[in-house]
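Justification of resources, computational component.

The compute hours requested in this renewal are based largely on the per-chain cost of generating structure records like the one below. Each record pairs the submitted sequence with a full structure-token output. That output is archived, and it is also reused by downstream analysis tasks.
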Amino acid sequence: QVQLRESGGGLVQPGGSLRLSCVASGTVFSINYMNWYRQAPGKERELVAVIDSGGHTDYVDSVKGRFTISRDNDRNSVFLQMNSLKPEDTAVYYCNAEVRDYTSRFRPYWGQGTQVTVSS
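The structure output for this chain reads:
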């Protein structure tokens, strides 16, 4: 089995920064894409940032220029550096990855989420 665990969430004032981390553990042979999603109260889950195995990235328009996604393939980890945070960034942030697991097939896995609250 594979587990994804996020960390780094918390309460921050508008304009502040946070760095989220996600580590994949268990039977991980390789990882294709690694993504960050978020879900605000009363809203649908939204794809925030993606990074593929080659390091190519993409972002939802609302975070471009403020968020940076990166990964460490040796540590099966993905990060989200969030700068210039706004109250509308408040949400539970989820890590998602397509992992080649013990079945030798690529399958999607999700973390349990970490709360980010931007408020003065």
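The CA atoms of residues 40 and 91 lie 4 Å apart. The longest strand covers residues 30-39.
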